[in-house]
Amino acid sequence: MTKLALRALWGRKLRTVLTALAIVLGVATVSGTYVLTDSISSAFDTIFSSIYRGTDAAITGRSAVSKSSTTNLPPFDQSLLGRVRRLPDVAAAIGGVADSSTNLIGSNGKVISFGGAPHLGFSVDPSQPQFNSLSLVTGSWPKSGQVVIDHTTAGKKKIKVGDTIRIEAQGTAIPFRVSGLVKFGTSGLDIGGATLAGFDLATAQKLFRKEGKLDQIRIERKAGVSEAALLAQVRSVLPPQTQVRSGVSQASTDASDTKSFTSFLQDFLLAFGGIALFVGSFVIANSLSITIAQRTREFATLRTIGASRRQILRSVLIESTVMGVLASVVGLFLGLGLAKGLFQLFDSLGFTLPNSGLLLEGRTVVVALVVGILVTVIASLRPALRATRVPPIAAVREGSTLPPGRFARYRAYGSGTLAALGFAALAFGLFGSGLSTTGILVFMGLGALLIFFGVALFSSHLVIPLATVLGAPGAAIGGAAGVLARENAQRNPQRTGSTAAALMIGLALVTLVAMLAQGIRSSFFGAVDQLLTSNYAVTAENNFDPIPVASADPARSVPGVTAVVGVRAGDARIFDATHSVTAIDPGGSKVVKLTWIAGSQSVFETLGATGAFVDKDFAKSNHLQVGSPIPAIVPSGTKQVFTVKGIFKPPPGGSPFGPVTISSATFDRLYTQPQDLFVFINTVGGVTDANTKALDRALAGFPNAKVQTISQFKKNQAAGLDSVLNILYVLLALSVIVSLFGIVNTLVLTVFERTRELGMLRAVGMTRRQVRRMIRYESVITALIGAVIGIALGIVLAVLLIARVDFIVLAWPIGSLVLFALVAVAAGLLAAILPARRAARLNVLEALQYE
Amino acid sequence: MSNVEPNGTVVSARDLTRIYGEGDTAVQALHDVSLDVTGGKLTAVMGPSGSGKSTLMHLLAGLDRPTSGAISIAGQPIADLNDTQLTKLRREHIGFVFQFFNLLPMLTAEENVLLPLTIAGEKPDEQWFAALLEKTGLTDRRKHRPSELSGGQQQRVAIARALVSKPTVVFADEPTGNLDSRTSGEILELMRDSVDSFGQTTVMVTHDARAAAIADRILFLDDGEIVRDLPRSDAKTVIAAMEEIGT
Are residues A836 and A738 in the same domain? Predict the structure, then answer.
């Protein structure tokens, strides 16, 4: 029987390949995800372990707000370095400063940037090479007024040793002479689009506004000294708000942020692999059902010559297992290619990732194979069971068809119940009270799964009415071919329904994403329109990095400027939790209009040294009223009590302010290196070309500070959302492609099945052209049925979700929805190419005799 | 495997009635038919379209169940057998030859012939298998696939497949119905030969007088009843009998 199963597969190569492709893509996504994330993790591991080369212990600042914080740690006094060097167990120690917004300015006057990656600046100390994780490619290490930059950036931007380059960190852009080009470590590690700029310590301190301060001290111990002893000794001289860790643990602490990023990325991508596999399982089940229906006589013959039901079942399951194995193996290796593609995808969409070569772990192989084979076999169970119900007598009956399943007549109720249960679970997950985050996700996931199953099964009942409507244009313009196409689509509603269902899932998700994105965008736009009364906004070139407070200063002296108001942000420990504290310059009432629950616009101008305004939710959960005290601890450890002066209600789309907002003067006193997230500017006469030019000129010394009109600001702030949206679309396209194979497969099988009928049609005068058109129309009708159900379902899901989530409003991405329907039509046309060609090529005589 | 003595009864049917459908649309395809199939003989069932001859064969072979009446094959009543027991019965006692051959297209001629044994998990008797291929003239064609064989050759493969397990009885359903007349003659010769050389009990349903003429006994069915029962006769007699029934 095994041989028989293998022969059956081999004898139907095209069908097998088309069916298997559905699984190949799903498995490729899973294996590609693992390969991608493993490669990223390993690249980050390499980066962090080489950063702490030769380092036995590292001293850093410590945030008083959050112990686990690894970024924006307060710098400490440089004098510590001398004390550490004098410790008996210390062989060598160097101090350094770093800055994550050290922008290299290109010859076009713009910040050099590759896909959202950081712009790292730091001090280098070539006198202590044991600590140096960089190596020179050409040139020499920097002296005062010089810089070394990474050779990748230099190569891309044609920068040579001896050139002058402007660099903007915490002040105006300053010209530096490029003394050398460096690379990270000694290997060919790609650091993923980050730009590097290294300076001597004094220059770096000045550039980063950390004069007399250090961010880190790295220590090498004397021979024979234990790490524990070294750490204990260092601890004895540590001032408050500093900490020491071993080199290894410092490396893993630094890596923890990227670790959580890669594990998020992994889960995120696996979800799409799961979706593709889910869709693939529909395609497999459907293709196998059709194939098995066509093999009715074969199974019946086997029964008459003594095959038992169990043997038939086994034979079909062996077929699907072998197909699953082959598809999974192919998918596994295709995943390597896909991982490469994903690197490029993320790169082109603005998320460049580090890469040290593709990594295929054993776990990837196991998971990809197990998942691929399991999905195939599970999807084939139902068709296999139906094959066992073929009665032996079907061997002697012509045109024998599969008996309907035992539960066929309950299908409508069953699938309806399934979908209803799904909606109930989803609604419970969304609106039920007292659920944990995991609980919510479990119910939502379960609900979505049930809904998709239910709707997919129910879709066969929608085929006839939908095909009547969707096939009408084809019937009107396509003549007989159009009419026949519509009837063909309707004559096996179950088949058309499950073929369309595969596409339905992909389109439902795409629609859901588009609706949510549109909702987020319009709630954000609504918030900007409601809140901002300024004419201009200034942000970093990449729209999200903070900019030095000094950047906006030159705007103040531009004639006609009536207000320049910066908004800064930092963390503080308030009521035993970490909260964002924002601060605003005087003049806030001129650029922002808040809805006040307590207080009024005048609060902006009367914050003084300790005043604060808070948002409604924060006030409510901490029982605050005007006059309530807010005790806060800032990262440097300083304590400060603020007093509530006003309470405001932010719009659904959010506001520039955190839960607690204070005056910028107070903020600058409490926080080292204050930076602005936004600067809002008002001008006499509003937005005019003259004003724009004047502001651009004034801020020319700060290339990273971008002057935008408020409408540009809106668009730019939403740009990140568009990038995310594009990534989601590309990933969901995978499952749409899988369903496309499903359509191709169904049509090819249908053409086989209708060979004799096609021959008859040709014999009575149908042209090849008309045959092709007929198949094409049927394909488009099937695709459109999937699109209509999918888009409708996506809208329903989105409406439910939006009803639950406060910060998204209901908005209709009409353009996108129309586009999705058009994509479905295109998909239908694409899917029909091969089957239509096969159908048109049939030899009339042979087709008539085909049995 | 033939465990029935020659000239004994291998298949017996009593008062078979088969009604298709219910109520107003009910059709009585077979009406109180009784018969015994003698071992080692070739029995032909003749009759015009709709006479119930195919229904009779389906019932005798256990492919369909009678509305009333009893059947036993090799002495075993089959009315109460479940699917597994019926499968076992088919393996041991029944071979089939079909009008449209029903070969598996992906298997070679040899593999098709051996399939019943493969399914039953048995090893072929090499000598018997060689003799069978020789007899059916397939020795040179054993590695060919059905698509590479002519219709006659395909039916030879099917006959060899039916014989390979030495079943108690072979049921042939219009074995020449899809073949030209010259090839039909060869196939009929082969079937006759299998009865003469191997003592293979065979029941053949046909509407071809020439086919019926090779049988040891010819039953005529009309309107669901046996109307004539002839011993071995030539084609002319058969045709005359057919006309007499007056279809």
Answer: yes
Model confidence pLDDT, tens digit, residues A36-66:
888 888 888 888 888 888 899 999 998 888 7
* Cβ proximity of A105 and A173 under 8 Å: yes
Range of the domain at A108: 55-258
- Structure tokens given for A179: 């003394």
The first and second tokens of residue B220, run together, are: 């005529």
Q: Any residues with CB less than 8 A from the CB of B223 and at least 6 apart, and which?
A: B31, B51, B52
Q: What is the pLDDT of residues A505-543, one digit of tens each?
A: 999 999 999 999 999 999 999 999 999 999 999 999 888
- Report field, pTM of the whole predicted structure over 0.95: no
Q: Span B39-57+80-245: which CATH code?
A: 3.40.50.300
* Statement to judge: residues A369 and A502 lie in one domain: no
| pLDDT over threshold 90, residue B8 | no
SS (H, E, C) B183-217: HHHHHHHHHHHHHHHHCCCEEEEECCHHHHCCCCE
- A416 inside domain: no
Q: Show which of residues 451-470 on chain A sit within 8 Å of chain B, judged by CB atoms.
A: none
Contacts of B61 in chain A (CB under 8 A): 304
At A265-286, the pLDDT tens digits run 888 888 888 888 898 888 888 8
Cα separation, B162 vs B157, in Å, equals: 9
Task: Return the closest-CA partner of residue B150 out of B122, B187, B123.
Answer: B187
Parse chain B into domains and list their residue ranges: 39-57+80-245
Distances (CA, A) of A353 to A12, A29, A40: 43, 18, 7
Cα(B118)–Cα(B112) distance, rounded to whole angstroms? 10
Reduced to 3 states (helix: H, G, I; strand: E, B; else coil), residue A319 is helix
Question: Chain B: residue nearest A389 by CA?
Answer: B83
Alpha helices (H) along chain B = 53-60, 83-93, 109-120, 126-136, 151-163, 181-198, 209-212, 235-245
CB-closest option in A10, A306, A396 to B119: A306
